[in-house]
Amino acid sequence: MEIWLNPACSKCRSAIKLLDAEGADYTVRRYLEDVPSEDEIRDVLERLGLEPWDITRTQEAVAKELGVKEWPRDDSSRERWVKALAEHPKLIQRPIITADDGTAVVGRTDEAVRDALSR
Fold first, then answer.
1. What is the enclosing helix (H) or strand (E) of 30?
2. Quick check: is 9 catalytic?
3. Distance (Å, rounded) from C-alpha 57 to C-alpha 2?
4. What sign results for the dihedral spanned by CA atoms 112, 108, 73, 87?
5. CB-based burial, 41-76: b 16+ in 10 Å, e otherwise
6. Which residues neighbour 24 within 8 Å (Cβ) at sequence distance 6 or greater?
């Protein structure tokens, strides 16, 4: 299990606290420093069963600069979104937990973190 996190994020700290309380075996990826490639983002999206716009933090300053809220959300625009997430990792929703069964969850709630633990 791996968790993509930003240590400054309270949701990330909460997820780590729960993982530790449950004795989970996991690795931490500080995705702002160890930036995921476009391929890694595509893989996580597949594992999540989501589209790139579903995990984009549209309220971030860089999102507003790029105007992502106005971007089309369709197959022809998917790669534009993936590229933006790779170039601006701050846009990636957090924390993302990859489960041992090959799936992933956005662990913003205790329930989502527990879901990842049960897989």
1. strand 27-30
2. yes
3. 20
4. negative
5. bbebbebbeebbbebbeeeeeebeebebeebeeeee
6. 1, 117
Confidence of residue 119 (pLDDT cuts 50, 70, 90): confident
Over residues 70-116, the pLDDT tens digits come to 999 999 999 999 999 999 999 999 999 998 899 999 999 999 999 99
CB 26 within 8 A of CB 5: no
Using CA atoms, how far apart are residues 24 and 70, in angstroms rounded to an integer?
40
- Name the catalytic one among 5, 7, 8, 9: 9
Helices 110-117, 10-21: crossing angle, 10 deg rounding: 40
Strands 96-98 and 2-5: antiparallel
Could you tell me the pTM of the whole model? 0.93
Q: pLDDT digit string (tens) for 11-28?
A: 999 999 999 999 999 999
